[in-house]
Specification:
single chain; 342 residues; alpha/beta; Aminopeptidase; 2 domains; 13-stranded mixed beta sheet; three-stranded antiparallel beta sheet; 16 strands; globular; binds the ligand O=C(O)CCC(=O)N[C@@H](CCC(=O)O)C(=O)O; binds zinc ion; hydrolase activity, acting on ester bonds; Aste_AspA_hybrid_dom; hydrolase; SuccinylGlu_desuccinylase
Length: 342
Amino acid sequence: MNTSEFCKSFNLLDFVREHLEGHQPFSMSLEDFVVTFHDVGIIEFKPKKESQQYLALSAGVHGNETAPMEIVSDMVHDLLNGALDLRCHLLILIGHPQAMLKQERFLDFNLNRMFNGEWKKYWDKRDEICEVERAKRLEQAVNDFFSQSSANDTRSHYDLHTAIRASKYQKFAIYPYLDSREHNPGVFNLMQDCGVNTVLLFHKPSTVFSYHSSHNFKADSITVELGKVKPFGQNNRDDFADAEKTLRQLVDSTYNYDHSSRYKANGQRVFKVKRELLRVSDDSHLNVDDDLANFSSFDKGFELLSDPEEPYIVENDGEAIVFPNNNVPIGQRMALVVEEVQ
Ligand SMILES: O=C(O)CCC(=O)N[C@@H](CCC(=O)O)C(=O)O
Ligand SMILES: [Zn+2]
């Protein structure tokens, strides 16, 4: 097959399904860029014209979160076929090919709890936990990508997800802890342009993918929850139109970064984490319905987390919950208790 036939028939998700065990790297030179398929689900586009923008887009770090994978797959197809221009350095990552094949969140261990070197703690168990080597490989890809940039270049990483349950605010983002850096208003504005009107500020270092790139490369990184988990083919792509349009504008550089505080005037809600509720024992149990929406709030005095040793009783009216999950192992997050920043 020649390059043009390869590009015309290329479907990223099918290609990933066909190369689950990995493949040898290969590159193709097209008119405006060189594209390198480094490994399964790891594709880098290098523009032939100079660019100071380094953009990493990851999707499918959880294998059942299909809409973001469909979006980046279509973008790759359009790049290869000249329907989308490339004006930045671009890294596309399909996070967890094996979980994607089964449309499951993860197979052995939550991949999005393995970054920022956390996988090293599980290295001896890499034969039992398939996510260990994948976390290492993804980190390496991000490290190689951002290491090519210099101090004056712009680095960004948008880790695209969909949430298990519905949300009171349908699209929201989690801005990782920034160590000593300031939040970038441009990121809030960008989120708003993606249709994301709620941003949650995380309060401490973590092991999620967006924290890895933020912490190690000072990238403008953020985890974006674009809607609710649905099987492949059942996503209504109109629901993602603003996000998709904005991501494409980042790639072809028609997006105008705006560092004003317009997101405030436009009513973007900002929350901060008050408490992370961890499973401390087999008896830890969140007293919430399975279909309770993210950002639902409670009255003071409600026993949100039952546990013989460490229950959590709501301390103030209006405390809200995000990502409640009774199905996590001991030591992992069962929920975030959040409150709105006024
Ligand atoms: O809906 C849920 O309960 C989880 C959705 C999801 O995968 N969220 C990410 C958020 C990562 C972050 O906090 O930046 C996760 O839990 O990994
Ligand atoms: Zn996810």
